[in-house]
Amino acid sequence: MSEMFSKKNLKLITNPLGEDNPITVQVLGICSALAVTVKVEPAIVMAISVTAVLAFANVIISLLRNTIPSRIRIIVQLVVIAALVILVDQILKAYAYDVSKQLSVFVGLIITNCILMGRLEAFALGNKPWPSFLDGIGNGSGYALILVIVAVTREIFGSGSITLPGFGEMKLIPQAFYDMGYSNNGLMILPPMALIVVGIIIWVQRARNKELIES
Amino acid sequence: MKQTNTYIFIYASVMVIIVAAILSFTAEKLKPIQENNVKIEKIQNILSSVGIQSTKENAEEMFNKYIPESNRIVIGADGNVKEGQAAFDIDLKKELAKPENQRSLPLFVATLDNGENKAIVPLLGKGLWGPIWGYLAFNDDYNTIFGAVFDHKGETPGLGADINKEWFQKPFIGKTIFDGSQFVSIAVHKGGHGAAERAGDTKHGVDAISGGTITSKGLQAMLKDCLGNYVNYFNNHKK
Prior knowledge:
The complex is a heterodimer. Chain A is mainly alpha-helical.
């Protein structure tokens, strides 16, 4: 057990949250981060979906890594990812219909999310299943972290509320503010603002951690 | 490791067969639940056009209570009732693709708690990015709008997507689709808040969504096209 959660293995989870974050440092998976972060609820569901797909795809590819013919390894990876994504999509349509409607095409687009191919190619093909699983969870969480930060920012300033799965929409900005002339920022709910928020996160992160700055 | 072409072919074939088996099994298993979700959503939309809010659990029960089977009728564009088809199961997309005189159009009549009858017309049209749809409920004069519900597949959030918001739907209430005996449908006026009023069209017009012009125009066309099919029936039954 102690070996399973050795320092080296734990790093697989903690690194992607900070200095090796898939979105802000590796700059992968930006597209969906822009699209599903208008409200917090779809962002959370998307993050869970990506994490699940990534962790399982990593494990499957890692288990198969010695049998996969290297000439068709990209195809094999895509088939595994696509199969898992379709499973997630079907399950969401059956058990979380409202959310699946909000996510619409973006669940399907997890297939093209660069984080998945990137981690399979860079990690799972050369590592054992358990570290691969942790790597998947870690990178999925790193993705989730940024997605939720962006979504919270955009929903508070764009719609004045927070929508959590199971709790529904909660108004954060009191009506009195609106009566005094406050108004929601319409730009916040448009895709460009997601890019700007991600940009600000990257800026803050690099300002605090000088090692991330390219020479 | 030896990786001959034969090995690669066998590997790929086996993998694809396994994946196909897993996916088709899951799809088959989940299909009834998914179809039920779509059905419940449709029921909830129909009910909310006459102001009845339902939950996922009681939607079907409420539907049977307010709009019993006998109140779900199918009409032709000539205004006559057609027998032998289930109104709820009609695929509006297919019907609208047919020539006008061959269409079978569903009409739902809800009897509210106060005994009033409201006729609910389903709508389907095109927005900017994909389909838009909705339900319009009419008073028994078949002219005055009692309630409106619209929804969309993927309109721009904050702009065209606002057709499913209350502030857009509410102004439809009380508007009329006939001017005298002339069918005029409902116009959607551009130009910001109060545009319909400035255009002097308070009876048959509502404000469009700023920044959602194509969705608004699509909605206007949807109203005209879909309601047009019911004009004969409405004329025959109007009080």
